[in-house]
Specification:
Oligomer: single chain
Shape: elongated
CATH class: Mainly Beta
Order of helices and strands: EEHEEHHEEEE
Largest sheet: 5 strands, antiparallel
Distance between the termini: 5 Å
CATH superfamily: YjbQ-like
Strand content: 35-45%
Number of domains: 1
CATH topology: Jelly Rolls
Structural class: alpha+beta
Helix content: 10-25%
Number of strands: 8
Number of helices: 3
């Protein structure tokens, strides 16, 4: 059994976003796990971002962001008050969209469903620079 890891940075921008990481995950697995079975862990080491496995491109990613806006309004109700107005909600996000997910890898490929993608969810407009860690165990 081997453990391989890769960390990369990305810029999410100044608005709420759902960034598809699936191709980055696939490329990592092609390099470190050709033909192997195991687990891929995707982790974002930030207190204001999460990882989701959802459909993208057909509106589900925007629907998730809309739902998060309804559940976590960007107003002054939050006790956590540093940053831009409503920023406290960003610190609640990882309670709903966890900062990590672990996925099966079969034959060196992610074993996702037909419409599933690995997506970074970032509602924090104050910090557009994100780090993602991919770790393969297999």
């Amino acid at each position: 059994m081997a453990f391989e890891t890769l960390t990369f940075d990305l810029i999410t921008g100044a608005r709420e976003t759902a960034t598809d990481l699936t191709e980055r995950c696939d490329a990592f697995l092609r390099d470190v796990a050709p033909g192997r079975d195991g687990l891929l862990n995707v982790f974002v080491p930030h207190a204001t971002a999460g990882i989701a496995v959802i459909e993208t491109g057909a509106g589900s990613d925007e629907d998730l962001l809309d739902a998060l806006r309804e559940l976590l309004p960007g107003d002054d109700r939050w006790r956590h008050r540093h940053g831009s107005p409503g920023h406290g909600r960003d610190h609640v996000l990882p309670g709903l969209v966890a900062p990590q997910t672990t996925l099966p890898v079969i034959g060196g490929r992610l074993a996702l469903g037909t419409w599933q993608s690995v997506v970074l969810i970032d509602t924090n407009r104050d910090n557009p620079r994100r780090t993602v860690r991919l770790s393969f165990l297999g």
